[in-house]
Amino acid sequence: MKRITVTVLGLAVVLMLGTLVQASPFEKPPESNMPGWVTAFPYQRNIDWTFATDPRGGPTPNGAPGAHYEGYDDPVLWDSDFIQLGGDAQWYEDLSSFGMPWQGMIGMINNTTAPMSGELRIHVDNWERLWPFKHVWIEFDYIANRPEVVDTVDLSMVSSAGSEVVDDGQSDAWFLPTQLFRQNAWAYIVPNPLWEELVLKIEGLQPGDFILMDRLHIATECVPEPGTFALGGLAIIGLVAFARRRRP
Predict the structure, then answer these.
(1) How many angstroms separate the CA atoms of 108 and 106, rounded?
(2) Angle CA(52)–CA(49)–CA(83) in degrees, nearest 5?
(3) Long-range Cβ contact pairs of 61-69 (< 8 A, separation 24 or more)
(4) Residues 132 and 223 sit within 8 Å (Cβ to Cβ)
(5) Contact yes or no for 157/199 (Cβ under 8 A)
(6) How many C-beta neighbours within 10 Å does residue 181 have?
(7) How far is Cα 164 from Cα 193, in angstroms, rounded to an integer?
(8) Is the Cβ–Cβ distance between 87 and 112 less than 8 Å?
(9) Cα–Cα–Cα angle for 55, 221, 191, rounded to 5 degrees
């Protein structure tokens, strides 16, 4: 990382404390649920994406519409994140006409007589950090009219050329008091990519079915391997010991 002065460090601490006041925590935080996670809340990136406004668009001066950037790296990262909707996927500002009490959701409602398919693509740009790997942690809320509808969704993570998603997975969903389901997903990318995209493909949504996402919450970190921290610590200890020996 770049060498920083005490003044800049003090400013960074103030900004971080301000972020801590407003940043959104995860119900199941990555440091407790993803093996190998290193950084602490509010994390390097902490993007809380609600869909009260149309999320499509960007890049914009303030990042993607409706995305709240809360991590301590976010103020210095690119404002070029975006959401794309393809096929039959839509943003629904108000669902009252469908007999649902929610507002601001993205997904698909099949009121036709034929199967529907669509795609949701969430693009997150990164700093060009030459770290050997990156962690991505996701918590999202959604609703479907029946459990089998979830099987029509294929959730995957892709990254920029030169990087590879070497491990990913998702947890079982749990029920929220708001009648929504909440679920976690994660990915391990080697090395840190220039960007990553979370892709949800919905294939063959049958007439009368629906699946809608209400919130998408993303944390990411790119840090050295734990062994690098250990080697760095040993090096510091060695330098301190060497300096003490050279004292007259």
Answers:
(1) 7
(2) 90
(3) 66/104, 68/24, 69/45
(4) no
(5) yes
(6) 18
(7) 8
(8) no
(9) 105
Residue where the block lists tokens 């070497």: 166
* Cα 49 to the center of its chain, rounded Å: 9
CB 217 within 8 A of CB 138: yes
| Contact predicate 119/172, CB 8 Å | no
Contacts (Cβ under 8 Å, ≥6 apart) of 83:
49, 55, 56, 58, 64, 106, 120, 121, 122, 123
> Is the CATH number 2.70.170 carried by domain 30-241?
no
pTM: 0.81
Q: 227: which 2 tokens?
A: 């062994």
- pLDDT tens digits, one per residue of 157-214: 999 999 999 999 999 999 999 899 999 999 999 999 999 999 999 999 999 999 999 9
How many residues does this entry show for the chain? 248
